[in-house]
Amino acid sequence: MQRFDAIFIGAGQAGPFLAARMAERGMKVALIERKFLGGTCVNAGCMPTKTLVASARAVYISRRGSELGVKIEGAISVDMQVVRHRANKVTMDARNGLADWLGNMDGVTIVYGHARFKAADSISINGETLTAPQIFLNVGARPVIPDFPGINDVDYLTSTSILDLDTLPRHLAVIGGSYIGLEFAQMYRRFGSEVTVIERATHVASREDEDTSEAIRVILEAEGIHVRTGAENITFVRGSDGVLISFGDAAVNASHVLVATGRTPNTDDLGLDVAGVAVNSRGYIVVDDRLATNVAGIWALGDCNGRGAFTHTSYNDFEIAAANLLDGEDRKLSSRIPVYALYIDPPLGRAGMTEREASSSGRRVLVSRRPMAAVGRAKERGETRGFMKVLADADTKEILGAAILGIEGDEAIHGIIDAMSTGTRYTDLQWSVPIHPTVSEQIPALLRGLV
Ligand SMILES: Cc1cc2nc3c(=O)[nH]c(=O)nc-3n(C[C@H](O)[C@H](O)[C@H](O)COP(=O)(O)OP(=O)(O)OC[C@H]3O[C@@H](n4cnc5c(N)ncnc54)[C@H](O)[C@@H]3O)c2cc1C
Ligand SMILES: NC(=O)c1ccc[n+]([C@@H]2O[C@H](COP(=O)([O-])OP(=O)(O)OC[C@H]3O[C@@H](n4cnc5c(N)ncnc54)[C@H](O)[C@@H]3O)[C@@H](O)[C@H]2O)c1
């Protein structure tokens, strides 16, 4: 039996950083990973997909070159092998960087293999037992495949396996119209595939307000993506040249199918029952405001605790745990404001509540909207799709939430995020002087328009 001060299961976006902080303090830590250092973000998530989104945007801009006075002789074509290679390189550089950093760190032992609890303070891995008084779970999540009739009779892709494609699908059907589905749908359309998004809900990106979902749909349809919402009873049959997907009274004949209907936590094969760690009905590990599970000495960080599903929420879990356990602070999960971006192009940057959430909170809600077509920066760049809106509490003057769907929306939203994080009232921000011409310069004006 090998003894450590702390054991980390999963090397995602929280565990490695906390392991490093603990090792710096002279602790002896084991970091167990069954696949690749860096987890989903580095290997099958943000990094490769945002690299692909960048390639797809380059195609889009090239095709629009003549509008901006750029003459490109000959047809614009896409080399999918180069596209894939570039995404793979970004992943490999990050993965190798982590391996160098952690591999050379005194006090950190990296163990590759699948870990399972043997007891609340010990882990079985590759036939060996490791024990520690502190165990941190950072096991992440994986794609969930619904029990669609016929799905197992056809070939389908997930957000992970699609990264290995180096040819262009004739017709990509994307099941699920949320983050993963919409990002892949738009990039493949831009690469040159016919694309159909098939979504069960009445709107794409259905967690958003209807005006946001509708604006996203308009953007996607303008690029030639077929969007089918309200799709009930989806079934799959293998056809002569692909897959026949039927839903309601419609059918689509696709060459490739991407299933992007959500993710499920990697908690089913961890032996949590042996350790007595509680999970909720969806398999997420139950944690308190400081990320502790119900078992003393065991914490759960990142996607597997169901309190966030993004790289920045996982990394923030590390920051909370490190602050509380190593720096004598008292940081809480409940202080975190929900923020994220949907990386279609133009992106959707989001902070805080939707209008639907704000209205149902019982507050007096003020709203201000502005189309991107009224934004100078957007006009100058010839990219006026989308809109921005902000919500505030009429009584407390708090900023409650915002959405910026438009060029640089993922960056410009940070003005709102920082204001919300510091508790700045909208009345204090209305008269700040922004730089012209930027998308962010609209924020003070937007706040002055709250009614
Ligand atoms: C296609 C896609 C695009 C995304 N894009 C974005 C984005 O743009 N921005 C954003 O913020 N988020 C994005 N995400 C989400 C983001 O990737 C995740 O929220 C984030 O990676 C979660 O990190 P984590 O630390 O919780 O776990 P993960 O990064 O999932 O890491 C968990 C690790 O644990 C390992 N593991 C699991 N079980 C065991 C076990 N029993 N023993 C040993 N090891 C184990 C796994 O192999 C994995 O390496 C995207 C996700 C996907 C799928
Ligand atoms: N930009 C980003 O930050 C980013 C990008 C990609 C992924 N992610 C993370 O990955 C996670 C998973 O993303 P996702 O898009 O797979 O999941 P999701 O849960 O966000 O969306 C799943 C979509 O599939 C639909 N759906 C579910 N079951 C269906 C069915 N039977 N038939 C048709 N449609 C169905 C849902 O209505 C929903 O629109 C997200 O929680 C997100 O945090 C983030």
Descriptive account of the structure:
The chain is α/β, with parallel strands linked by helices and 451 residues long. 31% of the residues lie in helices and 23% in strands. The protein has a five-stranded parallel β-sheet, covered by helices on one side. A five-stranded antiparallel β-sheet has the order 19-20-23-22-21, sandwiched between helices. The model has no long low-confidence stretch (mean pLDDT 97). Bound molecules: flavin-adenine dinucleotide and nicotinamide-adenine-dinucleotide. Its cofactor is FAD. Keywords: Disulfide bond, FAD, Flavoprotein, NADP, Oxidoreductase, Pyruvate, Redox-active center.
What is the secondary structure topology, with strand pairs?
Layout: E1 2-3, E2 6-9, H1 15-24, E3 29-33, H2 39-44, H3 46-63, H4 80-103, E4 108-112, E5 116-119, E6 122-125, E7 128-131, E8 134-137, E9 141-143, E10 171-175, H5 179-191, E11 194-198, H6 210-222, E12 226-228, E13 235-239, E14 242-247, E15 250-254, E16 256-259, E17 263-265, H7 272-275, E18 298-300, H8 311-326, E19 339-342, E20 348-352, H9 355-359, E21 365-371, H10 376-381, E22 387-393, E23 399-405, H11 409-421, H12 426-429, H13 442-448
Parallel strand pairs: 1-7, 2-3, 2-8, 3-4, 8-18, 10-11, 10-16, 11-12
Antiparallel strand pairs: 5-6, 6-7, 9-17, 13-14, 14-15, 19-20, 20-23, 21-22, 22-23
The chain binds flavin-adenine dinucleotide and nicotinamide-adenine-dinucleotide (NAD).
